């Protein structure tokens, strides 16, 4: 809109110059401030007084300087979305006149400003800004405005320059004082050069259009049009300028010859319009620039960068870069980026590079460097390797080295693209020959790696030519950065294990130091010397893993220990842990001795691991995975991972109703509030406040798993010296008066106060002494401590341990009581402890910190106990000042490293206190590499806890809406862990580190909050009542209160600050409107969680809660108003309005959204987001696919030759899927493919494809479809054989091998011949000509070599030994036999050993089993359609397509789709078919229509491609039966589907038995396939045989072939247990014959009850029946049989 003269004059009256301010005070600079801030710091002659010198408001003035000097927050620019919000009451107090006033006060002084405005009717110096009205004021300047602009060319065009026209604008949203560095300089006397006001008649409102190049129309008179364009672009009327630029665009598009001769004149005029401050002129000029470069290209090269960086106002390139880098309006920014792209594309790269390089390397504006780097990368990508070599690879490499180390994400991203192009060019044969072969100074790069990398460097391999090029032309630091950037291909993949690695780094660094600092140590009183001695730890240090064998150390070799060596040797990857044991005698200086406390397991890729910062090439050289991202521990050769667990949110008061609270006692109710408090060393304690039946309350604390209760009335008086009246006011006045709830609280408070008065406790000292006397024994306090000191220790160590000030502890206790009373009176609702809003994550490093603290305390306690025992038994040897005695006693401390190893190996936590955890098992799991999906899932999984798995309730397993964006709704296993084992979404992050300066951050945050209207809290004043005021808590500390009406504006400002700080950390949304922040605001962490819970009866308790500490789940969303990215937490999200891109209204038509999701896949995990077209499938099927993807036989690893996993699966011919999601490439899934693209026909063909069965083409299988290997690794350690001295050696027994033709050809169970190795005789050609070693003469020489280990590639039959070990003492040999019924092949033999003993005692033998598809194996698509192979059809019997003759690989029954509703598989079949025909991959990402904002119909789109290729658009084809030769009456749906072969195979599960081991008790076959047992034939199986009438089969299975036995039964009494054999002894019969009857036979069976053998009969019965009768008889129960 254009303003008339009268409107401009009215605007002048409202925007007069403020009084001259005094100079600002110096403020602390932050490192992150850019060049724009530095420029604005220069001559600030006109700056406001610091807000610290002015009273904030009446309440703050009354309370004094509780928070120190309160500084103002940064002012929001008028263009920022916050400009429309109401202002803060920070300026309500009257301010001293004559000074610069904050905007809120400026509104109050408008009458005075209006009076001054009449005297200052000069030139208008500042436009009036408003957040709502879209108006602007034109300035009038001198005729030489353009010259004035050139004179001011040094001013930046970024955010600092934008602050100038907004400094004296109308009040912005949040009233606050700007930073001194951001203030305007004094305005000059002459007007600021800018667009002029028109001099003609008053214009009317103008609508400016921006037609695209294709919409431009030709002109009739080109010459006249050119003249009009030249005249209009020089006009002072901006409307005429826009019209002239439009005419120029028309000429350039349709009559380019007309302008060709006038380019020298036209381009400076266009450049002048590009510099215009009016967006319409600027955008039109930039569009004209784009059209000119598209048309003229190379002709504009001399005019592109006139003046360069020295004169940026005359350089079109500089102006475009500045426009791209500015935070101006989005539509101008996008047009500038498009013009820059067109400029780069239209000019020759070789001519453009010299122009771009200075801007990318040395420009002061970091955003300009980033944009120039992107243009540079675009130009480099258009050059061939020879062109890059001709220009100079070293010169471009130096530019890439500067960009890759730049602090802006755009520059680093551009550098990676350049490095890839340069590396590819260096690998070109024609270019590579000209590069140097050796690096001049390779040691410099190793030294730049930091730490002891240079000292521990192993003999490195010769550098490649690329490495030599980097080291020759770059500094050591830049070369290392370039090489690392070239080796890192997927940041997303490394981010999966980042929570594990970062938390472990925190454990090794700051966390371990926090543990040592927070420990008090121990004190020992010497009874004889009458001295007091104190012992504690200091200076913890964890070294790096080194070998412990003497060979490498003596020879001076490489002592570094790498994870691969530990995997193959079956040892633990660990490093020494050492502390200083400090001891001091009272009154004397401290002394210390170093004490090694064992070796701690080291996490891979952590700061103590040698794999850190290695390139892909170096990782491969170390025999690791090329994309190894760490996060695991190698314990006893097995990779294990600490599983992330769910914990209650720290520092947040939760109100709960639990029936278990009744069990505390008859006076307890089901209501309580609790808070989990965490120290900086991550140790935690949970404090509860229980509501009693009589209306009072008690606080609960836990000491060594024992629970103790303290009356609330006594505890409240222990923190500060307060009266009963003050406590009454703190609790009662915090509730709104004249309400029933106020009386309810008053009654309960009176009961609390009586708890102390009834015991005669009226002062703080009396209350503390009372508690100290009660808890003296529980705390093991020494007698020398007074009751008061013990009570202080109780308050310090067991109550609200995250707070230090007693006033803060009192305020928090009051808040717990207020929330408890509100819950009891039903004023607020209970919190859901199972919702992710109240959860945080127990990270691996934080768990280890908890465990380390307890183990160190246990070690000190063991030292104290040993000294006390020595004092009792032999006091003469105890000298606590003797270093020798202290060393000897310290040697008896426990090995802390062994405790850590036990925790990691078993997952069991052995703890005295329980570490405030709800479980003691299940902390670690094996990081199995069955396939890459399964391996990835371990790092993104989070478990609810082993305790909840035993609960018989589904409450904890439910999928709650609060988990949106943080936990995946479909990636959870089915079965017992369903809902308990969840997985994070792909976009969810975990805060792993605590803040470096938490106290400074809280202080700065308090100053910011005070500037936004918060009244700081004071122990002397009661809190204002709810709901008019809300309590503000920062990390569980009450810092103040704010009016409920101002809470929205406060939250909006804090969110804008968070977004600005996040943009400084990482650029997620370039071009967003960011709020200029002050130094205090810049200290706010970008991951801060700001929660606003408004007041609502029955809803959660209201308040403003700010969380800045670690272990929280966060994720990115986008602010709708500013377009900036912001990190939000789970509790924060619950009270926000976030729009979901669902293609509609975002979930609600009437809801006003403040934030939006970046994309629809933000709710899916990594594995779930790889499922194609998952939005077309039934949800349970997507869940099944998440599980089956982790059970697939795929490509588990690339370094298979160096893996020693117990079991691994590998598919032989994997393929990349045609239909894939966008995240498929982000996680390098092509390096670990998991399936095969199969031709699938949906057809009911014979009866072999019913009930989830499927038919495979036998020819496809014979060609290699789904062929796979199973690898089993056996680690043989002969050192574990106790009492024997074994070594690998051939069997020394004499043996004469038979010729090959006479050897037995063994057969399998079904008559198949086993494979057999053909030996080489000494006379064969292989031995004479090829040098093959002939077969030996020892036993098993065809399999076992001379050293006792097997030959590589030798086939092993079932039951055959595959190695030989000989006992040196006895000479006997030992070997292991192959179990099972499968034939194995020796794939690899690894020898492990070293040191003094040179004999072979340890080896790894890897066996390979062929697993080709057989009937009964399981297959599945990526849509949960699992099926069993039922038959392999001959190729001639398979149906084929009439048009192409193609036969499908797989047949699936059409009845598998209707009930399961896996429509995504049908769409994949169609799109995969089209992709195979066109040779293109298909984007199968879910919710494409929602992300695009319009309908995306892929079946229709790809159906057209099929029609163009000659197929039907619906995917069906006419197929002909392979059996009858007739076409089917309907079209058959056939296409390409990616199929997976699962690891569930018949070869692993079939169980057959004829004879075998039996149970000695029941004489029935044992169970278990592993032990050769049978299959259980139970009651239901018996019933089914009875129903079929198969009685004889039942008799055969349960009797004849099971425990058939013959027993004697007395037919008279019916007893089975009363019959015995009575011997028939004679005078000539002695010994065994006397007891066995005549002629060696059995004795006479006689019933001892009937005393006769007349009625004894022999009966065949199951033996288990006799066992049953015997058991009943032992219980005095008689069982009689009726024998007929």
From TrEMBL:
Single Gene Ontology BP term? DNA-templated transcription
What UniProt keywords are attached to this protein's entry? DNA-directed RNA polymerase, Metal-binding, Nucleotidyltransferase, Nucleus, Transcription, Transferase, Zinc, Zinc-finger
Q: Which SUPFAM superfamilies match?
A: ARM repeat (SSF48371), beta and beta-prime subunits of DNA dependent RNA-polymerase (SSF64484)
Q: Where is it mostly found?
A: nucleus
**GO CC terms for this protein?**
DNA-directed RNA polymerase complex; nucleus; plastid
Q: What is its EC number?
A: 2.7.7.6
What is this protein's record name? DNA-directed RNA polymerase subunit beta
**Organism taxonomic ancestry:** Eukaryota, Viridiplantae, Chlorophyta, core chlorophytes, Trebouxiophyceae
């Amino acid at each position: 809109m254009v303003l008339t003269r009268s409107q401009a004059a009215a605007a002048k009256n409202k925007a007069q110059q403020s009084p001259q301010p005094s100079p600002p005070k110096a403020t602390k600079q932050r490192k992150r401030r850019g060049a724009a801030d530095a420029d604005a710091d220069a001559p600030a002659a006109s700056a406001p007084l610091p807000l610290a010198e002015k009273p904030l408001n009446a309440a703050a003035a009354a309370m004094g300087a509780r928070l120190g000097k309160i500084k103002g927050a940064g002012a929001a620019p008028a263009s920022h979305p916050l400009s429309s919000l109401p202002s803060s009451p920070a300026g309500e107090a009257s301010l001293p006149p004559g000074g610069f006033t904050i905007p809120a006060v400026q509104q109050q002084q408008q009458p005075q400003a209006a009076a001054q405005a009449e005297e200052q009717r000069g030139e208008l110096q500042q436009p009036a800004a408003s957040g709502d009205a879209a108006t602007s004021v034109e300035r009038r300047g001198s005729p030489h405005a353009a010259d004035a602009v050139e004179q001011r060319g040094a001013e930046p065009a970024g955010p600092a320059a934008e602050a100038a026209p907004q400094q004296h604008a109308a009040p912005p949203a949040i009233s606050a004082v700007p930073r001194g560095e951001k203030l305007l300089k004094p305005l000059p006397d002459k007007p600021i050069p800018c667009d002029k006001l028109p001099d003609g008649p008053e214009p009317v409102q103008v609508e400016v259009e921006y037609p695209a190049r294709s919409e431009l129309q030709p002109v009739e008179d080109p010459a006249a049009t050119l003249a009009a364009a030249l005249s209009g672009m020089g006009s002072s009327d901006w409307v005429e300028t826009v019209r002239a630029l439009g005419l120029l665009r028309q000429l350039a598009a349709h009559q380019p010859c007309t302008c060709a001769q006038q380019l020298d004149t036209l381009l400076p005029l266009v450049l002048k319009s590009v510099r215009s401050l009016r967006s319409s002129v600027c955008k039109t000029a930039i569009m004209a620039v784009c059209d000119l470069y598209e048309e003229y290209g190379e002709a504009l090269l001399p005019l592109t960068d006139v003046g360069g960086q020295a004169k940026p106002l005359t350089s079109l390139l500089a102006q475009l870069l500045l426009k791209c880098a500015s935070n101006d309006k989005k539509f101008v920014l996008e047009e500038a980026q498009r013009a820059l792209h067109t400029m780069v594309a239209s000019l020759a790269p070789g001519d453009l590079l010299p122009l771009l390089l200075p801007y990318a390397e040395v420009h002061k504006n970091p955003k300009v460097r980033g944009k120039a780097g992107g243009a540079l990368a675009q130009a480099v990508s258009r050059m061939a390797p020879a062109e890059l070599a001709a220009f100079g690879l070293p010169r471009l490499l130096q530019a890439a080295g500067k960009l890759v180390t730049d602090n802006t994400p755009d520059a680093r991203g551009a550098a990676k693209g350049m490095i890839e192009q340069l590396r590819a060019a260096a690998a070109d044969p024609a270019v590579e020959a000209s590069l140097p072969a050796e690096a001049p100074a390779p040691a410099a790069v190793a030294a730049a790696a930091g730490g002891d990398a240079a000292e521990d460097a192993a003999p490195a391999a010769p550098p490649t030519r690329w490495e030599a090029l980097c080291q020759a032309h770059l500094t050591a630091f830049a070369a290392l950065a370039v090489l690392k950037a070239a080796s890192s291909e997927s940041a997303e993949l490394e981010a999966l294990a980042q929570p594990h690695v970062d938390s472990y780094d925190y454990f090794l660094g700051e966390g371990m130091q926090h543990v040592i600092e927070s420990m008090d140590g121990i004190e020992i009183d010497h009874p004889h010397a009458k001295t007091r001695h104190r012992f504690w730890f200091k200076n913890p240090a964890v070294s790096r893993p080194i070998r412990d064998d003497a060979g490498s150390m003596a020879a001076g070799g490489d002592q570094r220990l790498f994870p691969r060596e530990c995997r193959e040797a079956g040892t633990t990857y660990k490093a020494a842990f050492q502390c200083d044991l400090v001891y001091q005698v009272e009154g004397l200086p401290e002394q210390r001795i170093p004490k090694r406390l064992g070796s701690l397991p080291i996490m891979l890729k952590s700061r103590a691991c040698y794999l850190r910062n290695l390139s892909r090439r170096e990782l491969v050289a170390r025999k690791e995975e090329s994309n190894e991202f760490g996060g695991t521990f190698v314990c006893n050769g097995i990779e294990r991972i600490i599983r992330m667990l769910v914990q209650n949110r720290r520092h947040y008061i939760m109100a709960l109703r639990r029936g278990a609270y009744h069990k505390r006692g008859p006076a307890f109710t089901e209501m309580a509030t609790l808070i989990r408090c965490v120290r900086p060393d991550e140790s935690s304690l949970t404090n509860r406040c229980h509501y009693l039946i009589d209306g009072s309350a008690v606080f609960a604390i836990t000491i060594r798993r024992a629970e103790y209760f303290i009356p609330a009335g006594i505890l409240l008086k222990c923190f500060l010296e307060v009266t009963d009246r003050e406590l009454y006011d703190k609790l009662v006045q915090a509730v709104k008066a004249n309400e029933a709830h106020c009386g309810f609280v008053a009654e309960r408070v009176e009961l609390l106060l009586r708890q102390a008065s009834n015991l005669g406790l009226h002062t703080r000292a009396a209350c503390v002494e009372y508690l100290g006397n009660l808890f003296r024994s529980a705390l093991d306090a020494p007698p020398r401590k007074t009751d008061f000191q013990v009570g202080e220790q109780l308050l310090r160590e067991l109550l609200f341990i995250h707070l230090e000030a007693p006033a803060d502890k009192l305020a928090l206790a009051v808040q717990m009581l207020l929330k408890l009373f509100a819950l009891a009176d039903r004023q607020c609702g209970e919190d859901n402890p199972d919702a992710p809003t109240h959860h945080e994550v127990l990270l691996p490093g934080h768990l280890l910190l908890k465990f380390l603290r307890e183990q160190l305390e246990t070690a000190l306690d063991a030292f104290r106990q040993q000294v006390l025992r020595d004092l009792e038994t032999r006091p003469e040897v105890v000298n606590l000042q003797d270093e020798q005695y202290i060393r000897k006693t310290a040697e008896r401390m426990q090995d802390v490293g062994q405790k850590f190893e036990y925790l990691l190996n078993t997952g069991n936590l052995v703890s005295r206190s329980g570490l405030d955890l709800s479980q003691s098992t299940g902390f670690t799991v094996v990081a199995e590499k069955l396939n890459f999906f399964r391996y990835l899932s371990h790092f993104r999984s989070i478990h609810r806890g082993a305790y909840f798995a035993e609960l018989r309730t589904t409450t904890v397993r439910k999928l709650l809406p609060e988990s949106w964006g943080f936990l995946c709704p479909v990636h959870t296993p089915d079965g017992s862990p369903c809902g308990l084992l969840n997985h994070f979404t792909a976009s969810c992050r975990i805060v792993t580190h605590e803040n470096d300066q938490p106290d400074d951050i809280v202080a700065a945050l308090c100053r910011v909050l005070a500037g936004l209207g918060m009244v700081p809290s004071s122990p002397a004043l009661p809190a204002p009542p709810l709901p008019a005021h809300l309590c503000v808590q920062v990390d569980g500390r009450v810092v103040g209160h704010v009016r409920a009406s101002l809470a929205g504006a406060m939250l909006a400002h804090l969110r804008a600050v968070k977004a600005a700080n996040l943009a400084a950390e990482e650029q997620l949304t370039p071009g967003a409107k960011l709020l200029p922040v002050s130094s205090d605001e810049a200290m706010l962490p970008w991951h801060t969680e700001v929660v606003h819970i408004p007041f609502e009866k029955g809803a959660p308790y209201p308040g403003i809660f700010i969380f800045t500490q670690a272990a929280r789940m966060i994720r990115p969303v986008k602010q709708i108003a500013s377009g900036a990215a912001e990190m939000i937490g789970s509790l924060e999200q619950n009270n926000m309005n976030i729009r979901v891109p669902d293609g509609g209204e975002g979930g609600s038509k009437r809801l006003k959204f403040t934030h939006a999701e970046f994309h629809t896949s933000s709710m899916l995990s990594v594995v779930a987001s790889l499922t194609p077209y998952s939005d077309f499938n039934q949800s349970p099927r997507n869940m099944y696919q998440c599980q089956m993807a982790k059970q697939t036989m795929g490509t588990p690893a690339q370094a298979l030759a160096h893996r020693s996993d117990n079991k691994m699966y590998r598919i032989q011919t994997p393929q990349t899927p045609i239909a894939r999601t966008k995240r498929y490439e982000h996680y390098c899934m092509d390096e670990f493919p998991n399936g095969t693209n199969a031709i699938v026909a949906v057809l009911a063909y014979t009866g072999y494809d019913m009930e989830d069965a499927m038919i495979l083409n036998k020819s496809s299988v014979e060609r290699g479809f789904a062929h796979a290997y199973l690898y089993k690794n056996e680690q043989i350690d002969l050192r574990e054989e106790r009492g024997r001295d074994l070594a690998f050696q051939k069997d020394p027994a004499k043996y004469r091998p038979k010729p090959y033709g006479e050897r037995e050809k063994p057969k399998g169970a079904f008559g198949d011949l086993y494979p057999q190795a053909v030996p080489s005789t000494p006379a064969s050609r292989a031995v004479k000509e090829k040098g093959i070693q002939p077969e030996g003469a020892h036993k098993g020489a065809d399999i076992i070599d001379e050293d006792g280990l097997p030959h590589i590639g030798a086939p092993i039959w079932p039951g055959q030994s595959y190695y030989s070990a000989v006992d040196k003492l006895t000479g006997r040999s030992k070997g292991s036999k192959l179990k099972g019924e499968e034939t194995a092949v020796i794939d690899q033999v690894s020898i492990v050993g070293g040191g003094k003993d040179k004999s072979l005692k340890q080896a790894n033998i890897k066996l390979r089993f062929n697993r080709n598809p057989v009937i009964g194996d399981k297959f599945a698509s990526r849509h949960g359609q699992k099926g069993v192979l039922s038959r392999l059809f001959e190729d001639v019997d398979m149906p084929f397509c009439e048009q192409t003759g193609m036969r499908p690989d797989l047949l699936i029954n059409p009845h598998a789709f209707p009930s399961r509703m896996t429509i995504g598989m049908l769409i994949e079949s169609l799109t995969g078919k089209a992709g195979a025909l066109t040779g293109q991959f298909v984007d199968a990402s879910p919710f494409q229509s929602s992300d695009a904002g319009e309908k995306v119909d892929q079946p229709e789109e790809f159906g057209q491609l099929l029609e163009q290729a000659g197929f039907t658009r619906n995917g069906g084809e006419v197929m002909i039966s392979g059996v009858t030769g007739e076409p089917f009456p309907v079209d058959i749906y056939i296409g390409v589907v990616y199929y997976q072969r699962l690891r569930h195979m018949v070869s692993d599960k079939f169980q057959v038995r004829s004879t075998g081991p039996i149970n000695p008790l029941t004489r029935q076959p044992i169970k278990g396939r592993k032990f050769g047992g049978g299959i259980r034939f139970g009651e239901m199986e018996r019933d089914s045989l009875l129903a079929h009438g198969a009685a004889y089969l039942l008799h055969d299975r349960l009797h004849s072939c099971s425990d058939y036995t013959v027993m004697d039964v007395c037919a008279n009494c019916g007893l089975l247990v009363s019959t015995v054999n009575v011997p028939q002894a004679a005078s000539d019969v002695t010994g065994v014959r006397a007891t066995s009857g005549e002629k060696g036979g059995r004795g006479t069976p006689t019933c001892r009850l009937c005393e006769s053998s007349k009625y004894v009969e022999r009966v065949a019965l199951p033996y288990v029946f006799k066992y049953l009768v015997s058991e009943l008889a032992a219980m005095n129960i008689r069982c009689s049989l009726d024998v007929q």
